[in-house]
Amino acid sequence: MKGAFLYGPKDLRIEEVKKPEIEDGEVLVKVKAAGICGTDIHYYLEGKTAVFVPKHPFILGHEFSGIIVESSVRTYVPGDRVVIEPQIPCFKCYYCRRGRYNLCSNLKFIGTAATFPHINGGFAEYCKVPVESLHRIPEELEFNEAALAEPLSVAIHACRRAIISPGSRTLILGAGPIGLFILLVAQLSGSIEPLIVDNVERRLDWAKEFGGYPINFSKQDVLEEINKVTSGEGVDIVFEASGSPRAVEVALKCVRKGGCVVLIGNLPNEDIPSRLLNIVIKEIDVKGLMRYANTFDAAIRILSKKLIPTSKIITHTFRLEEIHDALKVAIDGLALKAIVNP
Ligand SMILES: [Zn+2]
Ligand SMILES: [Zn+2]
């Protein structure tokens, strides 16, 4: 089979390798759709992410769906259509037993260098997957749409962490794919016309089209704009989805007293100065977010019921051989979501 192996910075090679052999508790999935994520771009451009440095070549891709072609279990048979939850928790540790399996002490992850040996991902014709990572997808859901369940999960988890209620005023910092998914899920959760900040016009156009109130921070004063819209009160909830250290300070300033700030963005692995007294005085809840847990069912239902505009989200599709082009449109910011169809 063919697979796209990461060898180092900007060194991604499509190679012909043996099909993976499944063991007990695993299935072999013929990959039909695999989305390009910000993490894949980090790996591609830098050969690593802030915290994970690959020790050997491996196949990237953790947002994927496909058809089972071999199975070692009774519950799944060849022909079943599935989307893969790429986290592999132990289901035994303190966190797993409390349902917070995204924090698992022994977590493995498909398609990243998070654990050693690295587990091959979805930018390949076939991928072997443990049965616990499988979620069935309904007839009406296409493979490309199903591959969105993973990034959508991040947004669902973010909105659950924030506890949005009907009419909540929300602000999203960063209109990249995750920021835009949060914009959509925040509205499904009851937020009306969330404010969303970026400096890339194309992203702000998408944000407006998806029901947001766009603010361009290179042209407008964010704090002034927030004060205008909220009569000086600030917003109930801020989602920091840009990963910019400066945005953290903006978040603490824009949230109202008693409000909530959820930090989602890939912040740099360094100290970030901030006036924490604001958190005390305004009694702000500051929450972190590490991927997601217990979200795939909700994500699949949202996608199946067409509650988000998937045809507008999936802006580009490519064959596996064209994966370098797929990465390019994602890196250049032309794609909202680029999908590879191996
Ligand atoms: Zn991802
Ligand atoms: Zn665990």
Q: Describe the sheet with the most strands.
A: 7 strands, mixed
The helix/strand order is EEEHEEEEHEEEHHEHEHEHEHEHEHHEHE
CATH class of the largest domain: Alpha Beta
Query: What is the third-level CATH name, the topology of the largest domain?
Result: Quinone Oxidoreductase, Chain A, domain 1
Radius of gyration: 20 Å
Quantity of strands, as a count? 18
Strand content: 25-35%
CATH superfamily name of the largest domain?
Answer: Medium-chain alcohol dehydrogenases, catalytic domain
Structural class, by secondary structure, is alpha/beta
- The residue fraction in helices comes out at 25-40%
Output the number of helix runs: 12
Which architecture of the largest domain would the CATH scheme give at its second level?
A: Alpha-Beta Complex
**Ligands and ions found:** zinc ion
Global outline: globular
- Alpha-carbon distance between the termini? 10 Å
| Low-confidence segments | none
User: What is the number of independent domains?
Assistant: 2
Average pLDDT figure: 96
